[in-house]
Amino acid sequence: MGWSVTIGRFFGTYVRIHITFLIFLAWIGFSAYQRAGIEAAKQSVVFIVAIFACVVLHEFGHILTARRYGVRSTQVTLLPIGGVADLDKMPEKPYQELLIALAGPLVNLVIAAILLVIAGAMDGEILRRIDDPSIGLVEKLAATNVFLAVFNMVPAFPMDGGRVLRAALSMWLGKQRATMIAAQIGQAFAFALGFLGLFGNPILIFIAFFVYFAAAAEAQNSFVQQATHEVRVVDVMETRVVSISRGATVGEAVDILLATSRESFPVLNASGGLIGLLSRDDIVEAVRDGDTNAPVAPFAHKEIATITPEQTLDAALEQLVDAPAVGVVAADGRLLGLVTKQSVAEVMLIKAARPDWQFSRGGRVG
Ligand SMILES: [Zn+2]
Fold this sequence. Notes:
Number of strands: 10
Order of helices and strands: EEHEEHHHHHHHEHEEHEHEEH
Bound molecules: zinc ion
Distance between the termini: 40 Å
Mean pLDDT: 83
Shape: elongated
Number of helices: 12
Strand order of the largest sheet: 1-2-3-4
């Protein structure tokens, strides 16, 4: 997510703060200053740092539970509505998603319980006095943790409640319909929130925007994931690949670049094995650096991601995040085709036009 600052790395996961979270914190500090002066503002800052720590712990509740099911998380971003942990994929089973989603709010409830024991005040009175500046920091923090747990359980993406709802619906309706329904509920909630915001708290409008777009993105991602999980690479890969032979010169590579509209060219050895990938930029680099008759192969990227034709397209999608193309190779190392972002986009276009379209080129290539 853009507009974020990295503050550290814990358990192998980067913790980032979104700029709007900082604005939200500044707003809290400023209103304390206006209400009760500099001393109150200082207390608010301490309080803010403590909340921040609780939100991080909440996210690590998700992250560490997800890890139990083999789902990694490279970063967590803190937003005004809480944190968002970028899990690298969704767990296979709905009950796993359910437990991962519940783990975050559960952490807040545990923190609240511990704090209330420390404060020696196990009654509900505190919740009603959350705005009262005279109650102690520990009580206030306990109340905030209860609030965080409750707010995150609202059944709207990207809140945990939305995921709980999706996971629960998935058990009966299948993942795709469950996501669509949960996303629609999330967007309806965003509209209601934005509407409420118009009559008072501008922060609500702000949150409504986040919820609305997160719900839309979730529905989109789920559609892509589902669609790509259903097709095999062999059925949708690019087979009319324009390759460059290992011995080709820079001049020959330029001729090939100009003769096609392609942006990625696999470099093949004499037996058709994939030894690298030349992008348009690599060829331009070669023109800038080398002479026309020099070999172009040294400019190719050697570490190219490969998959087998029988794998599903979502496996290729994971690799495409940081590579322009994924090579599809046979057991003997021969290149059979390429998967690019454009191949995935084309599969999506066909799927959107005809959801029941069967991709079945199987066996006819290679
Ligand atoms: Zn959460």
